[in-house]
Design a protein that fits this description.
The complex is a heterodimer of chains A (448) and B (493). Chain A is built from 15 helices and 19 strands. Chain A is an alpha+beta fold and 448 residues long. In chain A, the strands form four sheets. Chain A has an eight-stranded antiparallel β-sheet with strand order 15-12-14-13-17-18-16-19. Chain A has a five-stranded antiparallel β-sheet with strand order 5-6-10-8-9. Chain A has a four-stranded mixed β-sheet with strand order 1-2-4-3, covered by helices on one side. In chain A, helix 2 (13-23) crosses helix 3 and helix 12 (318-332) packs antiparallel against helix 14 (362-368). Chain B is of the alpha+beta class and 493 residues long. Chain B folds into four domains: 10-96, Uridine Diphospho-n-acetylenolpyruvylglucosamine Reductase, domain 2 (2-Layer Sandwich); 103-221, Uridine Diphospho-n-acetylenolpyruvylglucosamine Reductase, domain 3 (2-Layer Sandwich); 225-415, FAD-linked oxidases, C-terminal domain (Vanillyl-alcohol Oxidase, Chain A, domain 3); 434-484, no CATH class. Chain B is built from 18 helices and 20 strands. In chain B, a hairpin with a 4-residue loop joins strand 5 (103-107) and strand 6. In chain B, helix 8 crosses helix 10. Chain B is globular, with a radius of gyration of 23 Å. The chains are: A alpha+beta (448), B alpha+beta (493). At the A-B interface, strand 5, strand 6, strand 9, helix 8 and helix 10 of A face strand 9, helix 8, helix 10, helix 16 and helix 18 of B.
C-alpha cells in the first residue's frame, strides 16, 4: 500500500464487500475504471442503503467514495488527484439505468422544453433524444461524459459564450447525501424559487455532497440555421484574441460561440436563417480568409477543437484576456493546443504546454491581479486568493502518470475558526451532508 | 447566540446612532408602522429598531452591535415582496438598504455593474443605458424594488422568459455574516465553472443566510431591434393554449404575458391606461428582440400561432413610446387593481407550460365557488401564474376564503407538476405548503443549509421553512401528475 493511499486510509475490501452485500449491491473488487473497486447498484434505494451502511460502519471512516459514470470527469472529482483508482470505491451511476434501452431519460417534455434524466445517462444520448424533438441540451460537450459527470464537474461547453454556465440551465435535482438520505431540490420547471437551491451546490460540487441521481434541465430550441466559420491564421494568439474581441464588440453580430485555437478564430453563428446570413456578411468585414465548414461534421470538429484537456484554467475579464494571452505566449511560445474564449475570458492550457513552461510569467500576475505567490513552475496546481477580476485554477489532472500535487489543507481536518466565513460555510455544509467524510477530497473546495 | 432576545438598550441604540447616524436608526412608532409588513399585508409585526446603514462597513459594524444586543435581523430592501419575507420578527431589528443607493461601477467593456444593494432595479438599467447595456431581470415592481431584494427573492419579471431570473445575472456579492464579518463572493472575473457555488444557494435565500450589501451583476448588450405585439382573444383559454403552442413550436420571443378582461378593465380605468382594447376577453403581450431579420421572422411566427389559436386581432409596434405605454399597463396592473377592492392577494405559482389552461381554470373555479373576484395577469411564457384575488382585509371571512382559494390553486399546480412560487418566494405565506412539495428529509437538508451559513438563526428566523413538522401539519408531498417521486420512479425503470 502506498504512503499516499494511507493518507486517506487503506481500503478494506471486506468492509466494502459486506456493506454491498447488506445493501443488495453488486461489488467488484477490481472492475472499476483503472482497475479500482466498484459497486454497481441497480436501484436508488440500494444505493442509499449502501451509502448509509458505509457511513455507519466502523471501517467507513477509512473509505473514500466517488460516483462515476463513464469516468470522463473523474480527474476532477476523485478524493485526491494523486490517488490511484484502487484506493477509492467507485459507485457506478450507469447501472441505475437498468437493462432497458439505457437512455436514462426519465421525462422529456417537448411542449415544455424540459428534460429530466438519470445522472448516469450519456450526454450524447440525451443530446440525440432532445434533438429529435427540436431541442438542444447545454453543455455542448462532445467527449464521452454523463449528465451527472458534467454537472458534478461544473463543465461547460463552447456554448457557454451565449448560454452561460451549465448551472444556469439546471432546474432541479434528486441526490443522495453522505448519510444515505434521498433528497430533492428545485423541480422540473423553467421558473421556480421554492426553497433553498441545494442543487446549485451540487453543480460544480465535484460530488463532495454525495451522488447526483437525477437532474432536470432547461432545453433550448435547435436553431433554424448554423454556420461554423474560421479565420485564416493570425500572426500570434494575442492578435487572434484581439480579433475575436472585436467580433464580441460588434453590435450587430450575434455569435453563439467564439474561441481561438492555434492562432485561428473560430465562430459559430446560429439562429433564424436570414439573420445568420446577415451576421455572416458583417463578420466577413472583420475576418480575413473566412472559411465555412460543413454543418454536419463541422459541428463536431468545432466543439472538439474547443474541448482541450486543460491542466490549467485561467479566468479573467474580457478586457484583460489579450494581456493574459500575450504573457503566456511570452513564456510558452505559440500556445499550440490552448483554447481561449475571449467572451467568457477563459484560457485552457493543455498539459504539454504546462510541462514545457519553464516559469510562470511575471507579467501574468499583474494581468490577473493574483494575490499571493503562485507555485512554480506552472505545472503544479495553483489557487489565487480572492481577486474578483481573475483567477487561476488547476484543471483536471491525468489519471496516469500522477502529477506533482501541492500540499493543501484537508477540508475534513480544517479548523473552521482558523479560516474565513466562506471556508466555515463550506466546512459546515460538508459536516451536514457528508458527516462521515465518504465523499471528501483533499483538494476541493480550496481552503483559505 | 442565546435563546433570550433582549430589548435594545440605550447604550446599543447610541452605538448604532454613532455608526450610521441618527437618521439611520428609527425606533419611533411611525417608522415601526411603516415597516410592520412588506407588500403581503396579511401578516404584521413590530420591529424593535430599524437600522439604515449607508455602506458595507456601517452595516458590518451595526450587525455586531445588534448581535450583542441579542436581537435577530430581518434584511429588507424596498419592502415590495409579496410573501411576507421582509416582515419584521417581533421585537427584532430590521436592517434596510434604503440609504445604500450608489451605482459603484459600470464597466462597459466587461459588461458588468457593481451596485449597492439598495439600488432600485430600474435605476441600474438607466445607469448603463449610455453604454448600450441593460440589466435583464425586470420585476413588475422594478420602479421600486431593489437589486438586493431581487437577490433575496431570485426575482424574475416578464423578460425572465428570455433572460432568466436574478441567479443567472449575479456574478458576485458582498455580504455581512452574523459575526459582522464582510465576505466577498465571486466577481466579474470569477469562472462559472467547476467551483463550489456558494452564490447559488444565497441568491433566492430570502434574507436567511446573511445581509447582502453590494451586488455585481452582468449587463447585456441592448438588442438591435425590439418589437412589441398585442394579440387579442375572445377567450382566456384560447390565449393560454396559444402560449402553450408557441412554447411547443420553440419560438423564442423575450416575453410572453397574459392579461385577462378584469385586469384590462382595471388598467384602462386607471392612470396607466395603455390602450388595451375593451372588446377582448384576454390580451397576450409579446416582446421580440434581436437582429432585424430575427425579429421579423419570430414576430411573424408568433402572429401565425396566435391567429391559428383564435386571436381575432393582432397589432405590432416598434415605436418606443407606444411600447412603453403597453408595458406600463402590464407592469402597473397590480396597482390598478386597487380600483376593484382595497386589498389584493397576488398568488404566485408555477405550472408546466403545457398545462396553463387547466391551472387558470382551477383558479377560476376556486374563486367562483368562494364568491371571490379573480383577475389574471401573468408571465405565461414561463408558466408563472399570478391569479390576483381582490378582497377587503377588514372582512375576516373574506380573508379566510381568499387564503383557502390560494391553497387550492397551489395544490392544483403541484399536482400538475408545478410549484409553489416562481418569483415571490415562500416567506411567511407558504411555509406550511412546503410540505406539499418536499419531504421531511428535504426540508431538514434545507434547514442544514441554513444552519451552515447561520448556525444561530440570526437572519430572518421563522421564514420559508415550516415551523412545524409536516406530520403535524398533516401534509405530505403530493404525487405529481406526469412526474415521479424518488421511490416510485425506481419501479418504472
Amino acid at each position: 500500500m502506498s504512503t499516499e493511499t494511507n493518507t486517506l486510509g487503506a481500503l478494506d475490501v471486506e468492509v466494502l464487500h459486506r456493506a454491498c452485500k447488506e445493501a443488495g449491491v453488486e461489488f467488484d473488487a477490481a472492475g472499476g475504471i483503472g482497475g479500482g473497486p466498484i459497486a454497481r447498484p441497480r436501484t436508488e434505494s440500494s444505493l442509499a442503503a449502501l451509502i448509509a451502511a458505509l457511513a455507519g460502519s466502523a471501517g467507513g471512516a477509512a473509505v473514500r467514495v466517488v460516483p462515476v459514470g463513464h469516468g470522463g470527469q473523474l480527474s476532477w472529482c476523485r478524493p485526491d488527484a494523486s490517488l490511484a483508482p484502487a484506493s477509492f470505491l467507485q459507485l457506478s451511476m450507469r447501472t441505475l439505468l437498468g437493462d432497458g434501452p439505457a437512455s436514462g431519460v426519465v421525462e422529456y417534455v417537448p411542449g415544455d422544453g424540459t428534460l429530466t434524466a438519470l445522472a448516469g445517462a450519456d450526454i450524447s444520448v440525451l443530446r440525440a433524444t432532445v434533438a429529435a424533438g427540436g431541442h438542444r441540451l447545454t453543455p455542448a460537450i462532445f467527449s464521452e461524459s454523463t449528465l451527472g459527470g458534467v454537472l458534478a464537474a461544473g463543465r461547460s461547453g463552447l456554448d457557454r459564450h451565449s448560454l452561460g454556465p451549465i448551472k444556469h440551465h439546471l432546474l432541479g435535482m434528486r441526490m443522495i447525501d453522505g448519510s444515505g438520505r434521498q433528497l430533492r431540490s428545485g423541480g422540473r420547471l423553467v421558473k421556480n424559487v421554492t426553497g433553498f437551491d441545494l442543487h446549485r451546490l451540487h453543480a460544480g460540487g465535484r460530488g463532495i455532497f454525495g451522488p447526483i441521481v437525477e437532474a432536470s434541465m432547461r432545453l433550448m430550441p435547435t436553431p433554424e440555421a448554423e454556420q461554423y466559420l474560421t479565420s485564416g491564421p493570425c500572426a500570434s494568439a494575442t492578435e487572434a484574441v484581439e480579433l475575436a474581441l472585436s467580433i464580441r464588440r460588434a453590435p450587430k453580430i450575434r455569435e453563439q460561440a467564439l474561441f481561438v485555437r492555434d492562432r485561428v478564430v473560430h465562430v459559430l453563428l446560429s439562429g433564424r436563417g436570414r439573420q445568420v446570413e446577415a451576421d455572416r456578411r458583417r463578420l466577413e468585414e472583420l475576418l480575413v480568409g473566412l472559411t465555412e465548414h460543413d454543418p454536419g461534421p463541422g459541428a463536431v470538429a468545432f466543439h472538439l477543437a474547443g474541448e482541450v484537456a486543460a491542466t490549467a484554467r485561467l479566468s479573467t475579464v474580457p478586457s484583460r484576456v489579450a494581456g493574459v494571452v500575450s504573457a503566456l505566449e511570452e513564456a510558452m511560445g505559440d500556445l499550440l493546443g490552448a483554447v481561449v474564449q475571449p467572451g467568457v475570458a477563459q484560457v485552457d492550457i493543455p498539459e504539454a504546454l504546462v510541462s514545457g513552461a519553464s516559469s510562470w510569467p511575471a507579467s501574468l500576475d499583474a494581468e490577473l491581479s493574483v494575490r499571493g505567490a503562485l507555485p512554480e513552475p506552472l505545472r503544479a496546481s495553483f489557487s489565487t486568493g480572492n481577486d474578483p477580476h481573475g483567477s487561476a485554477q488547476a484543471g483536471p489532472t491525468p489519471a496516469h502518470p500522477t502529477p506533482a500535487h501541492p500540499t493543501q489543507a484537508d477540508p475534513t481536518q480544517a479548523d473552521p475558526a482558523a479560516s474565513g466565513p466562506e471556508s466555515r460555510w463550506a466546512q459546515r455544509l460538508v459536516n451536514a451532508y457528508d458527516p462521515a467524510g465518504l465523499f471528501q477530497t483533499r483538494d476541493f473546495p480550496a481552503r483559505s | 447566540m442565546g435563546s433570550q432576545r433582549k430589548q435594545l438598550s440605550r447604550r446599543h441604540q447610541a452605538e448604532l446612532e454613532r455608526i450610521v447616524g441618527k437618521k439611520g436608526v428609527r425606533t419611533d412608532a411611525t417608522a415601526r408602522a411603516a415597516y410592520e409588513s412588506d407588500a403581503f399585508m396579511l401578516q404584521r409585526a413590530n420591529a424593535e429598531v430599524i437600522v439604515l446603514p449607508r455602506t458595507t462597513e456601517e452595516a458590518a459594524a451595526a450587525i455586531k452591535v445588534i448581535r450583542e444586543a441579542g436581537l435577530v435581523v430581518v434584511p429588507r430592501g424596498a419592502g415590495t415582496g409579496l410573501s411576507g419575507g421582509a416582515r419584521p420578527v417581533e421585537n427584532g431589528a430590521i436592517v434596510g438598504t434604503a440609504r445604500m443607493r450608489d451605482v459603484i461601477e459600470v464597466n462597459a467593456e466587461d459588461r458588468y455593474a457593481r451596485v449597492q444593494a439598495g439600488v432600485v432595479n430600474v435605476h441600474l438599467t438607466a445607469a448603463c443605458a449610455d453604454a448600450g447595456l441593460f440589466y435583464g431581470p425586470d420585476p413588475s415592481s422594478q420602479t421600486a424594488c431593489t437589486i438586493g431584494g431581487n437577490v433575496g427573492n431570485n426575482s424574475g419579471g416578464p423578460h425572465g422568459f428570455k433572460y432568466g431570473s436574478t441567479n443567472r445575472h449575479v456574478l458576485g456579492l458582498t455580504m455581512v455574516d452574523s459575526e459582522g464579518e464582510v465576505i466577498e463572493l465571486g466577481g466579474p472575473g470569477a469562472t462559472g465553472d467547476g467551483g463550489l457555488d456558494l452564490l447559488g444557494p444565497i441568491v433566492g435565500s430570502e434574507g436567511m443566510l446573511g445581509l447582502v450589501t453590494e451586488v455585481t451583476v452582468q449587463l447585456l448588450p441592448r438588442p438591435e431591434k425590439v418589437e412589441t405585439l398585442l394579440c387579442l382573444f375572445e377567450s382566456l383559454d384560447d390565449c393560454c393554449d396559444a402560449v402553450s403552442e408557441m412554447i411547443a413550436r420553440r419560438l423564442e420571443p423575450s416575453a410572453i404575458e397574459i392579461l385577462d378582461r378584469l385586469t384590462i378593465e382595471a388598467v384602462e380605468a386607471s392612470v396607466l391606461r395603455a390602450g388595451y382594447p375593451d372588446n377582448a376577453e384576454a390580451v397576450m403581450l409579446v416582446e421580440v428582440e434581436g437582429g432585424d431579420e430575427e425579429v421579423d421572422a419570430t414576430s411573424a411566427d408568433v402572429i401565425e400561432v396566435a391567429r391559428a389559436l383564435g386571436a381575432f386581432d393582432t397589432r405590432r409596434t416598434t415605436d418606443p413610446v407606444e411600447r412603453k405605454r403597453l408595458w406600463a399597463g402590464r407592469k402597473g396592473a397590480f396597482g390598478a387593481m386597487g380600483r376593484i377592492a382595497p386589498d389584493l392577494y397576488v398568488a404566485d405559482v408555477v405550472a408546466p407550460r403545457t398545462r396553463l389552461r387547466e391551472i387558470v381554470s382551477a383558479a377560476t373555479v376556486a374563486c367562483r365557488e368562494r364568491d371571490l373576484k379573480l383577475a389574471n395577469v401573468f408571465h405565461a411564457g414561463d408558466g408563472n401564474l399570478h391569479p390576483n384575488i381582490s378582497y377587503d382585509r377588514r372582512d375576516a371571512d373574506e380573508v379566510r376564503r381568499v387564503l383557502e382559494a390560494g391553497r387550492i390553486i397551489m395544490e392544483a399546480c403541484v399536482q400538475a407538476g408545478g410549484s409553489l412560487t416562481g418569483e415571490h418566494g415562500i416567506g411567511l405565506e407558504k411555509q406550511d405548503e412546503m410540505c406539499l412539495v418536499f419531504s421531511d428529509d428535504d426540508l431538514a437538508a434545507m434547514d442544514e443549509l441554513r444552519g451552515a451559513f447561520d448556525p444561530d438563526a440570526f437572519w430572518n428566523p421563522g421564514k420559508m421553512l415550516p415551523v412545524r413538522g409536516c406530520r403535524e401539519i398533516h401534509t405530505r408531498p403530493l404525487p405529481m401528475n406526469g412526474s415521479a417521486s424518488a421511490p416510485a420512479a425506481e419501479g418504472a425503470r
